[in-house]
């Protein structure tokens, strides 16, 4: 918990410097380059298959970061970045400007709304908003915001309205360490403390985020 609090403090202290770096992606150019993305993420960035993430309306900075790390995962043989058998291959031929343009394009779109099953609202809201101090689990809202919109400057992603199946898979990957591109291991530290039930509830709760 102390490690996470310290990380957040350092991060917030550096945001003013980060803000000076303008994101220079071209959404129109990105639209022209996005044809191959539609197969998995849909023509409007709202993936029709729930194992793939919705990327419409996601922060451009976050999309750009992931694309860079998917490419790094391939070029480093999985030793660095984020390795995925599909996305690492897709990112490999992209130039840095391609990544910025695609990121700007998908960020300009609107993420489709999701739903939250009524039976997880109460428990999910408590865990998301307050965490669990006894188990050392911080509030999810501390980084992702009360509405799950995240923040572009800190590169915390929008997670509300995301496919529950995709969120569940990512939390499990953070927990077992197979995904390790989170800043300072923050998500891995948190996910290790989550039970299967916690992950199921949070994933479903975020689908609609009441």
Automatic annotation (TrEMBL):
GO terms for cellular component: periplasmic space. Pfam families: Cytochrom_C (PF00034). Heme c 1 binds at residues 37, 40-41, 87. Keywords: Electron transport, Heme, Iron, Metal-binding, Periplasm, Signal, Transport. InterPro entries: Cyt_c-like_dom, Cyt_c-like_dom_sf, Cytochrome_c4-like, Cytochrome_c_Oxidase_Subunit. One of its GO terms (molecular function) is electron transfer activity. Heme c 2 binds at residues 140, 143-144, 187. It is found in: Periplasm. Its main location: periplasm. PROSITE patterns: CYTC. Residues 25-110, 119-210 form the Cytochrome c domain. The keyword Flavoprotein does not apply. Binds 2 heme c groups covalently per subunit. Residues 1-22 form the signal peptide. This is Cytochrome c4. It comes from Pseudoalteromonas phenolica. The lineage of its organism: Bacteria, Pseudomonadati, Pseudomonadota, Gammaproteobacteria, Alteromonadales.
């Amino acid at each position: 918990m102390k490690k996470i609090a310290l990380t957040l403090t350092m991060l917030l202290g550096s945001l003013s410097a980060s803000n000076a770096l303008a994101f220079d992606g071209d959404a129109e150019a990105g639209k022209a380059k996005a044809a191959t993305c539609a197969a998995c993420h849909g023509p409007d960035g709202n993936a029709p298959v729930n194992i793939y993430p919705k990327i419409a309306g996601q922060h451009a900075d976050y999309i750009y970061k992931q694309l860079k790390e998917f490419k790094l995962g391939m070029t480093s043989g999985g030793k660095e970045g984020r390795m995925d058998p599909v996305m690492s291959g897709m990112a490999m031929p992209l130039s840095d400007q391609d990544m910025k343009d695609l990121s700007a394009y998908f960020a300009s779109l609107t993420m489709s709304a999701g739903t939250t099953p009524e039976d997880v609202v109460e428990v999910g809201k408590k865990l998301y908003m307050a965490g669990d101090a006894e188990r050392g689990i911080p509030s999810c809202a501390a980084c992702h915001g009360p509405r799950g919109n995240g923040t572009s400057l800190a590169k915390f992603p929008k997670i509300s309205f995301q496919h529950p199946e995709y969120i569940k898979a990512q939390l499990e990957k953070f927990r077992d360490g197979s995904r390790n591109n989170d800043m300072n291991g923050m998500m891995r530290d948190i996910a290790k403390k989550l039970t299967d039930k916690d992950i199921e509830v949070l994933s479903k709760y975020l689908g609609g985020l009441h």
